[in-house]
Amino acid sequence: MAAGQRKGGQRVDVQAFFIRIGARYKRIRKRPRGKPSPQLYEYKVEKLQELERQAAEGCIDLCYADESHVCTEGYVPYGWQLAGEEVHIPSQRVARLNIFGMIDRENNYDGFTSTESVTAAKVAGFLDRLSFKPRTRNTFVVLDNASVHRCYTIKELGPVWEKRGLFLFFLQPYSPLLNLAETLWRILKGKWIRLQDYESTDSLFYATNRALASAGKLLFINCSHYAV
Fold this sequence. Notes:
Helix content is 33%, strand content 22%. The chain is α/β, with parallel strands linked by helices. The chain has one domain (34-76, 92-214): Ribonuclease H-like superfamily/Ribonuclease H (Nucleotidyltransferase, domain 5, 2-Layer Sandwich), CATH 3.30.420. A 5-stranded mixed beta sheet has the order 7-6-4-8-9, sandwiched between helices. A two-stranded antiparallel ribbon has the order 1-2. The protein has a two-stranded antiparallel sheet with strand order 3-5. The longest helix is centred in the N-terminal third of the chain and has 19 residues, at 38-56. The chain is globular, with a radius of gyration of 20 Å.
């Protein structure tokens, strides 16, 4: 199929074939395991939009943080799918580089990578160091409800960080579209990392760290979308 089909000696264009049978070429998305509560979702959106407004007016700094990873099995963001069909790719255990990253709408990025798991202790350590950075206004960090974000250590340090001007805003479960960091991961894997970077573990991990180091300097994402 990838090279096209031959029928009656005539080459059939692959794209035309899929269009003819009703398929569309679209991004293969990750699907949350559950659905958000409509009431809580609306409440969180309202609060997040208020934070966005304050950030746009220069009253606060607003950052979006999340975990992700790259692995040597590759990344397939798009594929042909029939109407109403959801295509999923099973995961497998391969060489993996884990990422914790934070980005704002000015494309300022900060974070770390590790071949080990991103543990609650590592996230708490990153946020603690962030809380000590000099600031002229309060900083709000948007996080999802992953267990590493809701651990005892982070809950215990939360009031301490707030005294230093660092506040955490937790999204509702199953609402990844509200987190700008998800856009960063999609662009990182779909555009910034090239196909040839997957040739070896070393080249993939180097390309990932190189791209993240260039975020906001040489590489940029579109931060125009807002919480909806």
